[in-house]
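Assess the record.
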Amino acid sequence: MAQQEAAYQYLLAEKFYLVSMKTRLVFFTILFLLTWSACNQKQPSGNVDNPEIELPTGQPKVNETREPLPPPPLPPDGVVSISDYGFGAINKDTPFNENSLKEALPEFILKKESLETIRQTYEKYSAYKKNKKVLDIYPDSKNGNVGTVHLFTDEFEGPNGIRVGMTYRQAEGDAMNCFPGMEELSGYALCFNGGNTRVQYIFSHSFEGPDDQLPPPAVLSASGIVKRIIWYAGKN
């Protein structure tokens, strides 16, 4: 009986010890988690009692007024270009004379020239910028105003962002109405975008057939390049 009592007391003590150890383990685990959480809480930025303390990088000081941002840069020259209205300040009401054109194109150097064709000789003004021809300007024989403007460089753009030097595909030529050129434009494809007949796109190509025949669509798609863009004052 004494041995059984001793064994019972031993098991009871061991059980108490295990329960005590579990309790301690749970206690220290909770204490560790609380301590870790407190140490990792985000510290507030700045000091409320001292408004001159700097806030995180990129933020102004408290009570500090930032200088206004500079104005956005001016748009590139290409934004002012050929449209239904004309080229820049040139439109259907611009007189075809040197003074009016100089006023409309103050950044260009104008030279009065002529163009000889099979039928007749045309008077024109050529506009140069940095020794490079940018425009040819022709008169409207009916009213003495500007009749057409021919753009030769990619410095400026036409409707839908089309520029000289773009391919037929880039200009979405498949959606245009095209026909073969004549006289000065013989050997080129002349295209209007839909019903807009104020702006015309002149495409060079590799077609070697008759000048009065339009290249097949596959040839234009593979080799067509925008060589100039023309604005017409008397269309539409």
